[in-house]
Amino acid sequence: MNEGQKEYIKHNKFRPVKLLDGIEEIRQDYEERIEQGDTTYGIEILDDAVETIRKGSITFIIAAPNTGKSLCGQLIAVHLAKQGKKVLICSCEMGAGLLMERQIKQLLGVTSKTLRELYTLDRSNANRLMDSLIEDDNYKYLQNIYISETGGATVEDIKQLMDIFPEFEYVVIDYIQRVRGNGTEYENITNAARELQTYARDTGRKLIVCSQASRQSNADARQGKELDPSRIRGKGSGSIEEDGDVGLSLIEDPTNKTSDKIILFTLFKNRYGSIKNVTYKYILTDRLTFDLVERGV
Length: 297
What we know:
Strand content: 15-25%
Shape: globular
Strand order of the largest sheet: 3-2-4-5-1-6-7-8-9
Order of helices and strands: HHHEHEHHHEHEHEHHEEEE
Radius of gyration: 21 Å
């Protein structure tokens, strides 16, 4: 090895490594999974196909408007918290109060309007309901979830936030279109997606990144065109589909004739297994949960 090669290896993270070194990475992955157990998403299509959330991975959730983009990210965060994981939600849309309203509806079956009316008429009973989420050990896992309002933040701001709080191994970013940059929408989203992927690789953090689907994807769904995962694109960029390790799209079922809100979940990318380009059907319930209706529709 000459001096130039030695200097490059000393200072550059892109140094070449032997392919056979990958055996040690595989061994470490197996050891970690044996020691910690598999970490699941809590969404059947992901758990069936991906099995575990891997170190240094990035999962993109791309959703048409009003199909549960933020809800899906929050449900994953709650499921991670139940597994004892500390989760940070970088929320570009909602603060802790609005996200907590969703939890109240999911867990207690009480809407924010009903709770507000109860608070006006019977404050002690309303407080008892809210305090139950704080005091009841059955909901202790909620203490593992933290919210940071990151509307208007740059990707560097978010990376710095994660560096300052390394205890959050799992981070949900909702949503990438609201990450601020200096270029066009396409450039900003592309750069953010690639920087976040590099950050996940370098740090081992597990990122769940939500994105709004493109207008073309939404139009295809409304027109009832045959579902094609390649058409479910993130708004403003194709890069987020390319840079993710796992890609999940959500659109409303255009063939649904019932009063239920049916959402089609399509796994269009899966670097960790052979199962992809599959679709599961879910009902978006009144209690803000996704109930599985059918696998492999």
